[in-house]
Amino acid sequence: MSPRRALELGVELLVVVVVLSLVAGQVLGYPVLLGYVETGSMAPTMEPGDGFIAVPTALAEDIEEGDVIVFRAEELHGGGLTTHRVVGQTDRGYITRGDANPFTDQDGGEPPVQKAQIVAEALQIGGTVVVIPNLGTAVMAVQNAVSELQRQVAILTGTRSLLGTQGLMYLLLVLSGLLYLFDLLASRTSGPNRDRERTRERDQSISPGLVIATLAAVLVIAATAAMVMPAGTQEFGIVSAEFDSEQPTVIPAGESSTLTYRVPNAGVVPIIVYLEPASDGVAVDPDRLRVGGRTRAEASLTLSAPDETGYYRRYVTEYRYLAILPAALIDAAYRLHPWLPIVMIDAVLASGIALLGWGLMGKRRVRIRNRESRHDRSWVRRLLRELT
Fold this sequence. Notes:
Elements: H1 3-28, E1 33-36, E2 51-56, E3 68-73, E4 80-90, E5 93-97, E6 118-122, E7 124-125, E8 128-129, E9 131-132, H2 135-157, H3 164-187, H4 193-202, E10 204-206, H5 208-228, E11 232-241, E12 250-252, E13 256-265, E14 271-277, E15 282-285, E16 288-291, E17 295-304, E18 310-322, H6 327-336, H7 340-361, E19 366-368, H8 379-387
Parallel strand pairs: 11-12
Antiparallel strand pairs: 1-2, 2-6, 2-9, 3-4, 3-6, 4-5, 7-8, 10-19, 11-18, 13-17, 14-16, 14-18, 15-17
Protein name: Signal peptidase I
Enzyme class: hydrolase
Subcellular location: Membrane
């Protein structure tokens, strides 16, 4: 492989990784590998539209003063993801502030940030955030252009079904059809090269490795989504009160209340679930559950109220794994790192698809034939042939 071709493949791979990271971030609701800021609260470190490398909290080191974190705010901008710097720490959580702001978020009414609220940390080298200029600007420009296109098409057609995610899928389907027609027109040749071109079109083939890799990627993505998306950190708000109440989250100061924590499994594959207290004042029993397909399991969640009255937040983190490996192996991997079982399960699924694919296909290439008979020819091709 020539250096130029290697460079082209490297750039293409980088573009794919960037696109997949941004799409995954939109689906999961938090940055995956890449994130960006939309406001000027972090200037001059990061200007509006600048991007950064987001390290998930499961892989990041302990949060320290000076780190730039992405957390789920409760009050800032009406709640949602916020990227600010940690400027202090108290018994109740982290104190945060945007570099451009004259006061901390907590001075503005945001409660101290709990570790369970932090979803990522911006990568820093030598104490400096690694910034990707204008990444967010480009992403937002594409999002705005797509949204405007959807709006205009919806106005022209008089239907709201072309708005939102569903409308985007419709537009992509139409665009794919137009690109297919364009490819058919562009591939048609005239003169003595026409027959040669037709012969090449009749007998094309695809590498079996590409087919197997595609199937494995689809399976791994689906399995990872099934484990990651229903899991995560759950928040419970409690009130430490001076009186008794029938509400289980209104607890007399210094006492505790027990709730039922339900874990449903909508899939057909059994799952193993681990429940971890993600803040003080939380206890879970049992902390490990096996949930069969299309069923649910329950655990007892005990929330404790401090001696001081007021409103407090309690967190529980849930980890889910498809039970396709021995339970003891999943337990051992989970104790090493919560992400390790996901990696192992994905590796087993991908390896299984690869072995099955090579066993069925061997080294035979997958052939794609364009039949020239009138019966097998698509109506699009027949129309184009009649027109030309």
